[in-house]
Each structure stands twice: as structure tokens, then as C-alpha cells.
Amino acid sequence: MKYKTIENTIGNTPLVALQRIDSATSSQRGNTILAKLEGNNPAGSVKDRPALSMIERAQARGEIKPGDTLIEPTSGNTGIALAMAAAIKGYRMILIMPEDLSIERAQTMKAFGAELILTPKSGGMEAARDLANTMMQQGQGVILDQFANPDNPRTHYETTGPELWEQTGGQITHFVSAMGTTGTITGVSRFLKEKNPAIQIIGAQPAEGSRIPGIRKWPEAYLPKIYDPSRIDTQISVTQDDAEEMCRRLAREEGIFGGISAAGALWVATQINAQVENATIVFVVCDRGDRYLSTGVFPA
């Protein structure tokens, strides 16, 4: 008998209907809000998909081989996913991340065998990306570059989008995703728009002054190269307070232990819910809440 290996468990995540949050509005308007549970992936986030895809495809093209050193700037989830994928495929993994990100993320990366380099909080992700580029130029390793690598959105075009279409029986009308590297929203949009151009693609962005892990509003010079604004119909800003409160509600009222960016996407989904009728609104629960325990978002 041939058994599955751990990488075979990535994807095909559940899609579940919310039962209480915004239920009165949903009922009055004939809408359904659905949550795509990407925390069910083996390393706990939607980033498992592009992490494995980027390594496998770079290896197939002969750009890397087992034993090589990989470098990646990350805010957390991609780093965890790449650490897992590197462990599976036999690569040394160096991850560069801002020092203010949650301790759970750093500990999880190390558990998978990755080496961490922390950059000053004041420099944000931009400083982490700059250092990674410097290290690659010095010959210290290869950057897969989630921000520019077409294998990132490609995997969502090939897997996440088709799953959503099949799981909703083609009834999806709105897709809401947090915008970080923009790989998820770009790839899913491409697939869904090919199936039905009327499907609305909504990006969740942080409001001015808000720091929501996993959601970014990039300065022009650092915009991800994979970002294609034509793939997004609407962008809605969410405050840090609204995202954190929705994070707590998601766990308490729905039994879904999701992260803060996932809750930000849900908050945006509730705004859409109040504006439309007879809609099937899907949002991505991009990771699990347990990697945010030290942030104080959940009551002790």
C-alpha cells in the first residue's frame, strides 16, 4: 500500500458556513457567509500552498537542489510554511523577520529547523526584504521571493480557486481576502473571474495607523511584483481594533480559532453582507489563532 506523505495533506481545506456572526443581516438579505479554513493545512496557514509550490517548481526548473540554502523575508506565516517545506524537501532555511512579530511564530519556525534573523521593528517588512536581497547578492543563499514569484499566485489559481468553485457549486458571488503578498487574492481572482466575471473580489487592507499581522499596505517602491490591481474590484480598510474584536468573536461565537488578518477579512465580509442580497460571500481564514496568543488579542 502506498501512503500519503505530509505534503499531500496541503489544500482541500473545509469551507464552512457561519451560524451566528451577522446572522440577522444574512437571513434578512438571503446571504450566506462562508469561511475557508486554511488553518487546517499542516503548517497552519494558507501559505503552505505557495511555500511548497515555490520550492517544488524551482527545484523542477533546476534553480535549486536539496542541500541548498534558501532565504526569505517574512512576517510569519510564509516563514513557517517555508520552514516546513524546506524540512520536507531537504533545504537549509534562513528566515528574516521584524523583531516585533509574535513569539509563537518564531518558535514554530525554529521547530521546523529554520534559522532566524530579526530586523528592527522600526524598519518593518521593508527592512527584512532589503537584508534578504543583500544576503543573496553576497552569495549566502537563494531567495524564492514570495513577493515576486509567479508560483505564489499560480498555486492559488490551480488549487484554492477551483476548490472554492467546487465547494460552492459555482454559487460564489463575493470573495474576500486579506492583502499581504497578494498571492491568494490574485490567484483566486484569476480563476474565479474566468468562471464568472461577475464575481466580486474584495481586498481587506489595514486602516491608517493600524498594524494587523498578515495585512499590509505597501509603499509604492515595495509593492509586490505579483500584485495585479486589475484582479481586485474593491478594497475596504479595516481598523486594528475591529479586526481584533472580530478575532475574539470568531472564536467565541463560531468556534473558529482564526488569526487577526482572517478576522479582518471577516469584518470586511460583514460590510459586504449589509450591502448585497442573495449572495454567497467567502472569506479566507488564513491561519490559526494559536500563533497570536502572546499578542494579548485573546483574554488571558
From TrEMBL:
Keywords: Amino-acid biosynthesis, Cysteine biosynthesis, Pyridoxal phosphate, Transferase. Its cofactor is pyridoxal 5'-phosphate. One of its GO terms (molecular function) is cysteine synthase activity. Its EC number is 2.5.1.47. Pyridoxal 5'-phosphate binds at N77, G180, T181, T182, G183, T184, S261. The keyword Methyltransferase does not apply. Pathway: Amino-acid biosynthesis; L-cysteine biosynthesis; L-cysteine from L-serine: step 2/2. The modification N6-(pyridoxal phosphate)lysine is found at K47. PROSITE patterns: CYS_SYNTHASE. One of its GO terms (biological process) is cysteine biosynthetic process from serine. InterPro entries: Cys_synth (IPR005856), Cys_Synth/Cystath_Beta-Synth (IPR050214), CysM (IPR005858), P-phosphate_BS (IPR001216), TrpB-like_PALP (IPR001926), TrpB-like_PALP_sf (IPR036052). It holds the Pfam family PALP. It comes from the Bacteria. Residues 7-287 form the Tryptophan synthase beta chain-like PALP domain. It catalyses: O-acetyl-L-serine + hydrogen sulfide = L-cysteine + acetate. It is an enzyme of class 2 (transferase). Belongs to the cysteine synthase/cystathionine beta-synthase family. PANTHER family: CYSTATHIONINE BETA-SYNTHASE. This is Cysteine synthase. It comes from Lampropedia aestuarii. The lineage of its organism: Bacteria, Pseudomonadati, Pseudomonadota, Betaproteobacteria, Burkholderiales. The gene is cysM.
